[in-house]
Design a protein that fits this description.
Length: 202
């Protein structure tokens, strides 16, 4: 009985240590998400992330590239595990590094191609990320879109008519390829809706 109790106590201690590590990892991952979304005179934006587990592979962010341009990102790494969370951290780091090195010459397709090459070098064949990128030009009122194997992004016009943004390429970290983009004009009352497959699964 003493041996059995000692084993159970050891398992309990290991589990508590793992839970503490997962809690810390979750806090770190939460820090990669925007604490507060930016505010714009011409856009209303909202986002919600409800993790299925302590940590996972979903990520989103909004970056003000310049006075006229804003970048929207949503990504979903395969699996809901520690390895998926690590790849989310890699994506975040790559995004910030790209901004630092290309502050005055941001180009959406080049950005996505660069991110894909980084993931090719830093992930395994079983791990990849689907993602959608939208670059909004506030002056021209246009949205440039790159869909990297992600769920279709929907655009609803003021009449409720639906269009889909799905041009781009395969998921990130799968093959070294060049991504394509498409652009749409947005008017007052338009709604752009993007999401991960957690919505479908729910």
């Amino acid at each position: 009985d003493l041996i059995e109790n000692a084993k159970l106590l050891e398992i309990q201690i290991e589990q508590e240590a793992l839970n503490r590590e997962l809690k810390t990892a979750r806090e770190i991952q939460q820090n990669l998400l925007p604490v507060k979304l930016p505010e714009f005179k011409d856009l209303d934006i909202a986002a919600k992330l409800i993790p299925a587990k302590e940590i996972g592979g979903d990520y989103y962010n909004v970056f003000e590239i310049s006075e006229d341009k804003t970048l929207f990102i949503i990504a979903d790494v395969t699996g809901k595990s520690i390895s998926a969370a690590l790849i989310v951290s890699t994506i975040y780091s790559a995004v910030i590094t790209y901004f630092d090195q290309n502050e005055d010459k941001f180009e959406l397709k080049d950005f996505v191609n660069c991110l894909n090459r980084i993931l090719l070098q830093s992930t395994t064949a079983e791990k990849f990320a689907t993602a959608w990128f939208g670059l909004y030009d506030h002056s021209a009122k246009t949205l440039e879109s790159v869909n990297a194997g992600h769920n279709v992004t929907y655009v609803f016009d003021s009449k409720g008519e639906l269009s889909e943004l799905k041009t781009g390429g395969l998921f990130l970290g799968s093959f070294d390829l060049e991504y394509n983009s498409e652009s749409v004009s947005l008017d007052t009352g338009n709604v752009v809706f993007f999401f991960t497959d957690g919505v479908n699964e729910a």
